[in-house]
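User: Can you write out an input/output pair for a complex, sequences first and structure second?

Assistant: Here is one pair. Inputs:
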Amino acid sequence: MSGLFTDFINILLSTLLDVVPIAAIILFFQLVVLRQPIPHLKQVLIGGIYVILGLAFFLLGLEKALFPLGDIMAGQLSSPAFIGVADGESAPWWSYYWIYLFAFLIGFSTTIAEPSLIAVALKASEVSSGTISQWGLRVTVALGVAFALALGAYRIVSGTPLYIYILLGYCVVVVQTFFAPKPMVALAYDSGGVTTSTVTVPIVAALGIGLSTSVPGSNPAIDGFGLIAFASLFPIISVLAYAQFMHFRNTKTKYS
Amino acid sequence: MIATLSKHPLLKKLWSAVTDLVPIALVVVFFQTLVIRQPFPEAGEIAVGTLFVVLGLFLFIEGLEMSLFPIGDAMAYALTKKGSLFWLLLFSFLLGFSTTVAEPALIAIAKQAGTIAADAGLLDPNPEVVERYSLGLRLSVAASVGFAILIGVIRILKGWPIYYLIIGGYILVMIITTIAPEEIIGLAYDAGGVTTSTITVPLVTALGVGLSTSIKGRSPLTDGFGLVAFASLLPMMFVMIYGLFWF
């Protein structure tokens, strides 16, 4: 328990240093550039203390729970005993199917409940004046992330180079951009960024690194990363596709 | 009783921190009991850590809403009204930089990346070197987000269509990939997704929507978005260039 306490104090001190630059910038702009006193100073100060404490608790919990969780799940689901091969022997890529399913479900379940996605979906249905439904968009993005993580896990297992997938993904996005209804383009690009929340990122990162540690012949420093990149690229593709599809369906019903 | 309790704003926020974790917990429990069929290793420690995560996220977001968000909103508004381009651009850069430096997910990933590079023998395992590598990683990502917001604001002011910039950005990412060391590519691509979570998105969206509302002929719905997209493109380039200095 005392170890936990010293950990917490250490993290608290480094968090303090992280928050100082933000405070300095705010002070500078408010007092020097805008030349105004800070409104609700007391509330702001209490909020600042909350931010520092919260950040420290979160980082400690992340090290004790989120990182180990992703690592343990990857280790269990890809251990030779679980896959059913002898130790050190490499298994064909399809024998890791539970890992793919796990990655798929983690991607889908975390995205469908993601608050920033809910906000974007609301905006999207406003922009498109209702042709894009909120639930339709949320399910589309969640499926995009789920597929992305499953494919990303396959990439780690198979050891194929990451940049080829990203390059192909970019090409698809560029082609889609030419055909997609223009008001939706910026929103679709943004939806790629909002899907990966602060809670999901560490788990997914640990999952990738854990997986590449236990798959024979895979190097965590090179193959362990890339899951988050997939999870930010695929939602763009799925949202553009969804917008295109709804646009197509609407114009068709209009003229038939 | 429960209905009135759940309407309390504080409990509502605590609840939203819980809902972030519930889906993950469900999937993990499902796999552990039905697929792996073994007791979960280190269950006690993970449970305590999860409590810390919920409590931490709750305090963090509550604190942001009390301090940083109202000030950031008011500042973005005041600076666009002031009409000074220099201060507006400086503010945009610093906003992107400072919110990214303190992003919890980035702090975690940078640390993890340092440890892994040291384990793989790519870095001197001396803790000081690893620490410097992680900090440098965070600073280059933060600088890249600062520039991203800067470019995004100029785009809103000039009214350039977003897809030219994004497609140009994709091409640049691919060109840099060809010269970047292999060890950094995965991490660099991931950095794009890491930067845009809890703190950055709400503030940056507020800035974008505020700007496009105050400029004539811009629609907040089509021009206000797109700042986040830049904030996921530029980190890839900056981290790959950062990798060139190390490997």
